[in-house]
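Re-run requested by the PI after the first attempt was lost when the workstation crashed. Everything re-entered from the original request form. Ligand of interest: magnesium ion.
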Amino acid sequence: MIRAENLTKRYGQHVAIDSLNFTIERGEILGFLGPNGAGKSTTMNIITGYLSASDGAVTVDDLDVLEHPEEVKRKIGYLPEQPPLYLDMTVIEYLKFVGEIKGVPAAEFNNSMERVLSVVRIDHVKDRLIKNLSKGYRQRVGLAQSLIGNPPVLILDEPTIGLDPKEIIEIRNLIKGLGKDHTVVLSSHILPEVSAVCERVLIINRGKIVASDTPENLARRLTGKSRLSLRVDGPANEVKAALRGISGLRDIEAHPSTEEHAVDILIEAEQDRDPRRDIFHALSKANLPILLMRPMDLSLEDIFLQLTTTEQEVTA
Ligand code: ADP
Ligand code: MG
């Protein structure tokens, strides 16, 4: 549905995005994840035709954005970082205005409007002035304007920024629902956002794509190993001795436990081996009861830091 080839944007000497290559499939919910300044908004502005690339090309539904700007704009609903809301308009006036700009035929418009109002659940505030709405509701209006004309693609730039936790959850759920009928691209600099909503994540850092995968695969691929947390009833040295007999365990660390007479163990195992049954048998044979055994996934936060933190930043 969207294809970027060698997409590059320079501001003077500064390279904001550097030869990005990616494709986004129809119906996909893709997360564009990266720290502030990574190049997310620049990329979205180019896809939507609001900014021209210095190099490379983007197609939407096989149409080149530069060659067919109007057609491409009709295919895309865009929620920019700062939604262009007119505060002195009512919700309905504003959405009508957006419909006119987008050239939605009057006959279609009323239908489209009703659907949009109900999808983002703003029917009950439709006659209010936008300036009197809460931040969360303004963001819904922003989402609503992106849906006018029912475009197949939605591009949402940091859609939950500045919202409170309850509003964030509501907007996330809305976006998830929209993903059923639209190709959705959303950007975020926070991880829980993309892992909660997206099927695939593109991680962008300093204008380059550093990873592209499902949130789950990213975790697996990047660690190359799995971790287990264990609590065992018994002395640390005995527990460690019993575990050492198991093959495929790379590292065994013992820590004092908060539970009396117990020890907490952190195990790193080879990725392709699940050692849990061996652990059970080994400890059972040594008469050391397991009180707790839990796989520990590397969080997306850990991965993100690994991917986007340079050594320079670590030592700085
Ligand atoms: P993000 O949305 O990921 O926070 P942006 O795409 O806004 O990142 O910015 C990417 C880089 O380009 C940043 O280093 C930013 O300072 C720079 N940049 C963005 N817009 C401009 C501009 N109009 N002029 C000069 N530099 C810009
Ligand atoms: Mg941005």
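Saved to the shared folder this time. The two ends are 41 Å apart (CA to CA).
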